[in-house]
Structures are given as C-alpha cells and as structure tokens.
TrEMBL record:
<dbReference type="GO" id="GO:0005737">
    <property type="term" value="C:cytoplasm"/>
</dbReference>
<dbReference type="InterPro" id="IPR005921">
    <property type="entry name" value="HutH"/>
</dbReference>
<comment type="similarity">
    <text>Belongs to the PAL/histidase family.</text>
</comment>
<protein>
    <recommendedName>
        <fullName>Histidine ammonia-lyase</fullName>
        <ecNumber>4.3.1.3</ecNumber>
    </recommendedName>
</protein>
<comment type="pathway">
    <text>Amino-acid degradation; L-histidine degradation into L-glutamate; N-formimidoyl-L-glutamate from L-histidine: step 1/3.</text>
</comment>
<dbReference type="InterPro" id="IPR022313">
    <property type="entry name" value="Phe/His_NH3-lyase_AS"/>
</dbReference>
<dbReference type="InterPro" id="IPR024083">
    <property type="entry name" value="Fumarase/histidase_N"/>
</dbReference>
<keyword id="KW-0456">Lyase</keyword>
<keyword id="KW-0369">Histidine metabolism</keyword>
<dbReference type="InterPro" id="IPR001106">
    <property type="entry name" value="Aromatic_Lyase"/>
</dbReference>
<dbReference type="GO" id="GO:0004397">
    <property type="term" value="F:histidine ammonia-lyase activity"/>
</dbReference>
<dbReference type="GO" id="GO:0006548">
    <property type="term" value="P:L-histidine catabolic process"/>
</dbReference>
<dbReference type="Pfam" id="PF00221">
    <property type="entry name" value="Lyase_aromatic"/>
</dbReference>
<dbReference type="InterPro" id="IPR008948">
    <property type="entry name" value="L-Aspartase-like"/>
</dbReference>
C-alpha cells in the first residue's frame, strides 16, 4: 500500500479489495493458530490471557468469550469522536497488516473489515485512550467492537446508529471472534501511522505554499532575491534548503517590484532573518518531512502484531515480540510538530513586518486605508500570534512521557497517539498562519503598485485570492470570513496551483 492509496481511502472514501494472494496468506497463518489452539502447551494470545494476565490459561470452551471480552474491555475510549479520515486510515492499516498473513485471523474477519471500508461504515473512535503501546489498543478496539456487531458507527451518510443495524443494512454479518483474532485486531500502531501519513500529505502541500508566501513577502517588503542564489545554497548542501530557495527564486522571477530596487544604488543586502533565512528554515522542515516519510514507509512495510506468525527454520511458528511499540512513529510525529511551529513562527514574523511603519518601507500603518479610523490587518496578526503560541505549546514532545500500565507489564509506552493528535492541530494551525501571511502580502503588493508590477506568479496568487473571496485594500470590513476563505484556498491547494500554473511544478 502506498501513502497515496491511504489518503484516497481515508480522506476520499475509496473502497478496498483483498487479493486472492492475500486471502491465501491469511488462511496459511490461520492454520498455524488452529494447531496452537489444539496443543496442550499454552500459547500467548491463543490460549492465555493478555498483558499482566498472560500466565492465565484459558480452556477451549472459554476462548470465544476471551476474545469478545478483550475487545469489549479495551474499547474504553473517552472524549469526542475522532475524524472520519483518522478512523478509516487506522482501519485500512489494520487490514493491511491482517492481509500479510502474519496475524492468524480468519479470512472472514479480514473480509468484514474490508466490507466496512467499502460500505463507508465508520466505527465511533474516541479521542482519548491510546498510550501508543501495545499500539493503539483503545481506538482499534472500538473498530473491532463494530466487527462483532456492538458499539456505535456512522454510516456513509454520517448517520449515527448501532453497529448491528449498520451491518444489517449493508448486508454484512458480524463475526464471532476465534482464538487470537481479538488480539490481532487491536495490537498495532495503525492510528498514529495513519495520522502521520495524512500529516505528511498535508505538509508537503503547506511547505511549498509557505515558500510562495515567503517569496511574496520578500517582494512586498522590498527584500533582495540575491541571497537565494543557487551558488549560495550549494555551499551548505541541505537538499530541503536548495529546493526551498529554488522555489523562492521561481516565484520572484520577473518581478517589477524586485527590479525596482535592484540597481547599483540599492544597499539592501542584509534583510531580516525572517526574509533572508526562509530557505534555511523551510528547508530544514522539508528535510524533517523526508525523514518522517522514510519512517512511515518502513512502517507501511511492517506487520505490527504480537504474537506474530513468522517462518523460522522453514516452519511457520508464533513468536512474541515488541514491534507494537510506537517509538519510531512517535518521534517523527513530535519532530514534525516542531518543524510546523517554526515555519509558522517565521511566517508570522514576516506578516508583522508589513504592519509596522518602522520596518515596512513606506507602506501605511497596518496596511490600513485610513490609519486611525481604520485598523487594517492589525488584529489579523493577533490571530497569527495566538496560533503560533499554541503551536509552540504543541511542539512539546509527547514521546518523552511514559506512564506505566497493565500492572507494570507495559512499563514504558510511546504516547504516539497523543503525538499524532497534537500534530493534526499543528498542521491546521500552520495552514491558518500561512493563509494570513498570503492575505497580508497580497494586500501589500497591491499597495506597492507604483513601485512596479509583482511577479507573474504573485499576480496569479493574488488573482486566486480575490476570486476566492479574499478582498484587497480598502476600508475596514468584517475580516474573519476573508481569513477563512484564504485558509480554504491554502488547504485545497488552490494557492499553490495558481503559482504553479505560471511556473510549472515547484520543488
């Protein structure tokens, strides 16, 4: 499975299908579990209890109840529902692991999970409950609960109803879980990985859009483009920095505003850091993103479960392991939150420069029509500042925390789910901060009209903003709807598409 396929299923409702090869792998691993279930020697997860109760042997006649009790007791989430795309993402990733033939489930169980995705049935998963070890137990248990016809779900139209009713309306029958199946359904890092993949998708778009916004700010603040020269970037060869600088050069190309102060009499070669160092900060964020994508790719190639069916010495066997620990994913989730906060912080600093007559090089205070009577974009910067402050709080890592659980059997946990939840808020905040920078830079460039025409890419972005409901200079008006319109244009990719419509694909 590719990250693009996950986004298609999780966010856009695409369906799924299990291949015959996958189903045969599922059958082969199930046969191993059946042999263990018949053996006299206890096997963890098959004929024993779980966690701190792993030494308790469970007789055959109690094992269906064991699996059912596991799912019911672990579906202990609390708080608001998580987003539909998050739940569908974790469902798809769990199905992907089941399809590897490493978990020992029956094919009917895997097919039912695929059926829920295909019919748009989304179990209600709660915000709180996962420690990121043994995987995302509580969130996945709420999904497993729906497979046995219990709990609440939302249908394809968003209607909340009992799982049994939703299954019946879709022509699906609940399963009675057999040995190992309950454990196989809930023991994975699927929630945090799904949120990581969605964040990576969004951040790739946002970081390119942040380059566009930064270039427009450099242009509007009469900054120099000389510092973005490829030769200067090459002497510090970070790939993200080079890509970001290339984007800034592309957006600034053929700018009449930049050309108006590029002559020999221009002494401005030391712009403020928020202008001059944009490629260094945006580039570091890009390199962080690439590292996180490498970790995500490894996780996508993994089969996270415990115990797991493996081939040892030519024989399929069941072995315990610690692959469910979420540390690899939790670390990069935290790292991305740091990067998002820093990119947003620099974006806000550029916006603030536009509003201050001591630093905006001839623009009116707060870009107001009639300063004093009008406040212009004064409070838009307040909004940015409040978001950036929150992003700094969200940048505090979750993965350094650990609270022992399960009677000290699970004595070190990753808190990866918490890291993923705060990263989602950080991605949203970054989009809003960049949107306000674009709104500000566009107004400033229009006010700069006597100095020269903005670059073709900047003109295209300004036109997209205006067509999308973001107004230009003028008397004060209700600003919140225009900010929200700018956010929609950023998130949808419309701003980036406008720039790329002139320049071609940006790096």
């Amino acid at each position: 499975m590719t990250p693009e396929q996950l986004v298609a299923v999780a966010r856009h409702g695409a369906g799924v299908r299990l291949s015959q090869e996958c189903l045969e792998s599922v059958d082969a691993s199930r046969a191993v579990i059946e042999r263990l279930a018949d053996a006299e020697r206890p096997a963890y997860g098959v004929s024993t209890g779980f966690g701190a109760l792993a030494t308790t042997h469970i007789p055959r006649e109690q094992r269906a109840r064991l699996q059912r009790s596991l799912v019911r007791s672990h579906a202990a989430g609390s708080g608001p529902e998580v987003e539909r795309e998050v739940t569908r993402g974790l469902m798809l990733l769990r199905l992907s692991t089941l399809a590897t033939g490493r978990t020992g489930v029956r094919r009917e169980t895997a097919l039912l999970l695929a059926g829920l995705l295909e019919h748009g049935i989304t179990p209600v998963v709660r915000e709180h409950g996962s420690l990121g070890c043994s995987g995302d137990l509580a969130p996945l248990s709420h999904v497993a609960l729906a497979l046995i016809g219990e709990g609440e779900v939302r249908d394809a139209g968003g209607r909340l109803l009992p799982a049994a009713q939703a299954l019946a309306e879709a022509g699906l029958a609940p399963v009675e879980l057999a040995e190992k199946e309950g454990l196989a359904l809930i023991n994975g890092t699927d929630g945090m990985l799904g949120m990581l993949l969605l964040a990576l998708h969004d951040l790739r778009l946002l970081l390119r859009t942040a380059d566009v916004a930064a270039a427009m700010s450099v242009e509007g603040l009469l900054g120099t483009d000389r510092v973005f020269a490829a030769e200067l970037q090459a002497i510090r060869p970070h790939p993200g920095q080079a890509a970001s600088a290339a984007n800034l050069r592309a957006v600034l190309a053929d700018s009449g505003v930049v050309a108006s102060h590029r002559g020999e009499d221009c002494t401005r070669v030391q712009d403020a850091y928020s202008l001059r160092c944009a490629p260094q900060v945006h580039g570091a964020a890009r390199d962080t993103l690439d590292h996180a994508a490498t970790v995500a790719a490894r996780e996508l190639a993994s089969a996270v479960d415990n115990p797991v069916v493996v081939e040892l010495d030519g024989e399929l066997r069941v072995e315990s392991n610690g692959n469910f620990h979420g540390a690899p994913v939790a670390y990069v989730l935290d790292f991305l939150a740091i990067a998002a906060a820093d990119v947003a912080s620099m974006s806000e600093r550029r916006s603030d420069r536009f509003l201050d007559t001591a630093r905006n090089h001839g623009l009116p205070p707060f870009l107001a029509e009639d300063p004093g009577v009008d406040s212009g974009l004064m409070i838009a910067q307040y909004t940015q500042a409040s978001i950036v402050s929150e992003l700094k709080r969200l940048a505090a890592p979750a993965s350094v925390d650990s609270i022992p659980s399960s009677a000290m059997q699970e004595d070190h946990v990753s808190m990866g789910w918490g890291a993923a939840r705060k990263l989602r808020r950080a991605v949203d905040g970054l989009a809003r901060v960049v949107a306000i920078e674009l709104l500000t830079a566009a107004r400033a460039l229009e006010l700069r009209a006597p100095a020269g025409r903005p670059s073709p890419a900047s003109v295209a972005v300004i036109d997209a903003l205006r067509a999308g409901g973001v107004g230009g200079p003028g008397e004060d008006r209700w600003l919140s709807p225009e900010i929200e319109a700018a956010v929609v244009l950023v998130r949808s990719g419309a701003v980036l598409e406008a720039a790329e419509g002139v320049l071609g694909p940006l790096a």
